[in-house]
Specification:
The protein has about 375 residues and is an alpha/beta fold. It is about 35% helix and about 20% strand. It is built from 13 helices and 16 strands. Helix 9 packs across helix 10. The radius of gyration is 19 Å and the shape is globular. Keywords: Kinase, Transferase.
Length: about 375
């Protein structure tokens, strides 16, 4: 599966010609382009899936096929005319980057690789629709990675990505030109991607970019803590996002292992540290400043998929626009609340409007309408 390093195309056209001129402000590194299959399912299917509920951990091709084959027999009926199964471009970084471009009008691009298959075409079409810069996406012979996102009756999600045999961008394929001129690099921790993450961070810091890292899942933190600690304590991570479970897992075995203690630990090594607390909002620290911000709006949780990813979109928008730490958290709370109102990690036009209303109500700086990709 040799790499063909060329700009991504959609319908035979060079997509890089339709994006913002100049380097994207925010770059996301997602070595594996990923397609999500999202469905609300009953508990009996979740009980058949290896691993803990609520986490995200890779599965083999056979397990992915088994889950997909079982979906129709376990999908819960829809109560709001929404599709019972959604298939969209996915992955934590892709969700964040798409959110920045679609809802906040921040020029964004993605570094990664996808196969020249139907899933690859879907990934490019979905991301390209929102004007995400795909010129750093490598096209390779082979298959595009997939993930099954299983959502239970109360909106909690269990994710099982299948990366086996799928194409990815390798560390030695990264080029300085990929990063030049951008301001932020967005990463998600994954043991399969540690080497490419390290190389990306190295080049990004040499080019003067800030680096943001998401801790991925409590399962990933638990099973592969040592390489993660090495990354966090390197001094190269400027911003770190963790949810409550990941934060607790990060300090498991210590005298005090809770979100507040984890925030203090992260703030020692990162300029900005954020721990999201689901319905309880979030806590954040920047140097000596500490803030605690509640969740925004009514608690209508259809699917928690992408909540942390879209929180990151809002928080990064705040940093790019020069907002205060507290304002960044408020915007993150608004954007995180927008995505949980429908299935999957892609915010609907109606829910972007809901977010803008929440932002306006709370006196927050709204994105420039002319730069937003939201279709109404």
């Amino acid at each position: 599966m040799g790499a063909e390093i060329r700009p991504a195309t959609i319908n035979g056209e060079n997509h890089s010609e339709s994006v913002n001129i100049g380097a994207p402000i925010v770059l996301g590194l997602q070595p594996f382009a990923l397609v999500d299959h999202i469905a609300k399912v009953d508990w009996s299917l979740l009980s058949q899936i290896p691993g803990e509920r609520g986490g995200s951990f890779p599965v083999a091709v056979e397990e992915l096929k088994h889950i997909l084959n079982e979906l129709n027999a376990h999908i819960l009926p829809s109560t709001d005319n929404e599709s019972l199964l959604k298939t969209i471009a996915g992955g934590s970084v892709a969700n964040t980057i798409r959110g920045l471009a679609a809802g906040f009008g921040i020029s964004s691009g993605i570094i990664g690789a996808c196969g020249e298959d139907e899933e690859g075409k879907l990934f490019m079409s979905n991301m390209g629709f929102y004007k995400v810069d795909l010129s750093r996406l490598r096209l390779k012979n082979g298959t595009t990675a997939q993930c099954v996102c299983l959502v239970d009756e109360v909106g909690n999600r269990t994710m099982r990505p299948c990366l086996s045999g799928s194409v990815k961008v390798q560390a030695d394929e990264l080029k300085r030109e990929d990063f030049k001129g951008s301001k932020w690099l967005v990463l998600r921790y994954a043991i399969l991607n540690v080497e490419v993450i390290k190389e990306a961070i190295k080049i990004a810091k040499e080019e003067g970019l800030f680096v943001s890292l998401d801790l991925a899942s409590f399962e990933m933190v638990r099973k592969f803590k040592s390489p993660l600690i090495e990354l966090l304590e390197s001094g190269n991570i400027d911003l770190c996002f963790a949810n409550e479970d990941e934060a607790t897992e990060l300090l498991r075995g210590e005298e005090k292992a809770d979100p507040d203690a984890a925030l203090e630990y992260l703030a020692k090594h990162c300029k900005w540290a954020v721990v999201t607390l689901a319905q309880n909002g979030c806590i954040a620290k920047h140097e000596k400043e500490f803030v605690r911000v509640p969740a925004i709006g009514e608690a209508k949780v259809t699917d928690a998929t992408g909540a942390g990813d879209l929180f990151a979109s809002g928080f990064l928008y705040g940093l790019v626009r020069g907002l205060s730490l507290e304002e960044c958290c408020w915007v993150g709370s608004c954007s995180g609340g927008s995505v949980i109102r429908s299935l999957g990690g892609e915010v609907t036009p109606e829910n972007w409007q809901w977010m803008y209303k929440q932002m306006q109500t709370n006196g927050l700086q709204l994105p420039e309408p002319s730069k937003s990709s939201v279709v109404t």
